[in-house]
UniProtKB/TrEMBL annotation:
Keywords: Cell membrane, Membrane, Transmembrane, Transmembrane helix, Transport
Name of the protein: ABC transporter permease
Family in the record: Belongs to the binding-protein-dependent transport system permease family.
Main location: membrane
Residues annotated as transmembrane: 46-67, 114-137, 149-169, 175-193, 232-255, 282-303
Subcellular location: Cell membrane
Signal peptide extent: none
PANTHER family per the UniProt record, alphabetical: ABC TRANSPORTER PERMEASE PROTEIN, OLIGOPEPTIDE TRANSPORT SYSTEM PERMEASE PROTEIN APPC
One Pfam family it belongs to: OppC_N
């Protein structure tokens, strides 16, 4: 390609660059990290399978009325005469101890789990990612101050801190659960982003951008952030499942989502004492919780492998 460029001085560098991207040394397509990662993900069966499961769960969360004709909060939705009835063709998951349809409650419980998981991840990413970007790029006393501030939250175990905080507030709504978990979990994103920024800010393309007069904001957003976001994206994908599991654990302990709210953790807590008498009220919410957490973890593993050039 260099010989072609020399023989035709009128040829633009953009055309040469495009051709170089299109045809590599071995005659294969060579693109950016993100292009190659997406191409790799589309060939991974685990990624496709987990993405399909997550898409179905998102549909459950957004439109539960499409999958069940009943709302467990409606008056008369639960009848004690149906208490602990076994699954049947008309009620696939049977009834719980209060005579509520387990299938309906499982479908509607998806909304709180998804809302808590995504809300926590969004808040953690915005706070931890922004502070990590500032600390890594600025260095000096700003980096030291923000790092010591993050260390304070690192010293607080997530579950223990969340239990204590939720016991104090005692609101039992999804947003409060997400807010408290985000307040305790953001330092992990901070550490990841800070380390990635420090590793990238002295690269040649960053130095060249500064030499061409690029301001701090432009250099960080246009040049450093796109190359430092990969490890954060991997952690975010995996942590979605972890936050959903944490919400279920908190609800199980009685400090997370509280009645009249609906949660897989609450369903498991209500069903545990009668497990030997009837296992289906505990089995189905546990199965949905496990599949949800596993799907996000598998997707995170696939994203990590795709974004790591050394693994390909």
């Amino acid at each position: 390609m260099s010989e072609i460029a020399k023989s035709d001085p009128n040829q633009s560098t953009e055309a040469v660059s495009a051709a170089d991207i299109e045809i590599g040394a071995m005659g294969q397509r060579v693109g950016s990290l993100w292009t190659d990662a997406w191409y790799d993900l589309r060939r991974r069966k685990l990624f496709i399978g987990s993405a399909v499961v997550i898409f179905i769960l998102l549909l459950f969360s957004a439109f539960p009325q499409l999958f069940t004709d009943h709302n467990p909060r409606d008056a008369g939705a639960c009848q004690l005469m149906n208490s602990l009835k076994e699954p049947s063709s008309s009620h696939w998951f049977g009834y719980d101890v209060q005579g509520c349809d387990v299938y309906t409650k499982v479908i509607w419980s998806t909304r709180n789990s998804i809302v808590v998981g995504f809300s926590t991840v969004i808040m953690v990413t915005l706070v931890g990612g922004t502070l990590g970007l500032v600390a890594g790029y600025s260095g000096g006393w700003i980096d030291g101050l923000l790092s010591r501030f993050a260390d304070i939250f690192f010293a607080i175990p997530l579950m223990l801190g969340a239990i204590l905080a939720l016991a104090v507030f005692d609101t039992g709504d999804a947003f409060t659960v997400a807010l408290i978990m985000a307040a305790l979990a953001w330092p992990k994103i901070f550490r990841l982003m800070r380390g990635a920024v420090i590793a990238n800010k002295h690269n040649d393309y960053v130095v060249a951008a500064r030499a061409l007069g690029g301001g701090t904001f432009r250099v960080t957003v246009r040049h450093i952030l796109p190359n430092a976001i990969a490890p954060v994206l991997v952690y975010v994908t995996i942590s979605l499942g972890e936050f959903i599991a944490a919400e279920a654990a908190l609800s199980y302990l009685g400090v997370g989502i509280q009645p009249p709210g609906i949660s897989w953790g609450l369903m498991i807590s209500d069903a545990q004492e009668r497990f030997l008498l009837a296992s289906h009220p505990l089995l189905f919410p546990s199965l949905f919780l496990s599949v949800t957490v596993l799907s996000f973890i598998l997707m995170g593993d696939a994203v990590r492998d795709a974004l790591d050039p050394k693994s390909r």
